[in-house]
Design a protein that fits this description.
241 residues; alpha/beta; 4-stranded parallel beta sheet; globular
């Protein structure tokens, strides 16, 4: 239920032909021009404003004053994505999390300066947090990140409690070298479990390189998503019963 498009597309429309926008989250890479198309497609599909979920991934220095009214009724459209850094080796110490929090705070201040109310400004950000192989450490880090961000937001005195939370897009990472071609499948599964347990909103699993080819790698990556979704639904059902 998620689509991630890398690079800058002159026309995103063909890539979304036949796609129900209300059923997916869309991750883009600086595609400000895609907003009009997304809103138009949403209207054509009779999607409610709150059903369209997307991050445009605009440059952090972008002037988004003219977008304020266009996205006002769309609480799940994020304009900016803040990353804790590119993919890193699993053994590399985590040291970019604080920088991501600082960049997020700076973006809030920039949005306020451009006329966005604090509650609306909070809704226009997301964070891309890259994972490592330490399951328990990553679970703790994702949860601690939410607490730290909520503390930062609280300093701006938002009107609504929901502004204290944020969208976290967890990203699986692979080391430059692995012992065997299939280690990254285990690595992806382990990191995905930590992301789901830590409460991510979205999960990106890049396709690993397998000797059997890209088709199988893509299928396995999709299956990791499906198995975790089904397991999560089963646990939720057990808890509710």
């Amino acid at each position: 239920d998620g689509v991630e498009v890398s690079g800058h597309l002159a026309d995103l429309s063909p890539a979304l032909d036949g796609v129900l926008l209300a059923g997916i989250d869309l991750q883009l890479d600086g595609a400000q021009g895609a907003l009009g198309m997304l809103l138009k497609r949403g209207e054509e599909q009779d999607a409610q404003p709150g059903d369209i979920s997307a991050c445009l991934g605009l440059p952090h220095d972008a002037d988004v004053r003219e977008l304020k009214d266009r996205v006002a009724k769309h609480p799940r459209i994020r304009l900016f994505s803040v990353s804790d850094g590119p993919g890193r080796h699993s053994s590399t110490p985590i040291h970019h999390t604080g920088e991501a929090l600082s960049q997020g705070k700076a973006l809030l201040q920039r949005l306020l300066a451009q006329g966005y109310p604090i509650d609306d400004a909070c809704a226009r950000l997301q964070f891309r947090l890259h994972l490592s192989d330490d399951l328990f450490l990553e679970v703790a880090r994702l949860r601690a990140f939410r607490e730290a961000w909520a503390t930062i937001v609280d300093g701006f005195k938002p009107e609504h409690d929901c502004s204290h939370t944020t969208w976290i897009q967890a990203v699986v990472t692979y080391p430059v070298e692995t012992g065997s071609a299939h280690e990254d499948l285990i690595r992806a599964t382990l990191q995905a479990v930590s992301a789901i347990t830590g409460g991510c909103d979205g999960l990106t699993i890049p396709t690993p390189v397998l000797p059997e080819g890209d088709a199988l790698a893509r299928r396995v990556v999709r299956n990791i998503h499906h198995l975790l979704r089904d397991a999560h639904a089963g646990l939720a059902g057990t808890a509710n019963s």
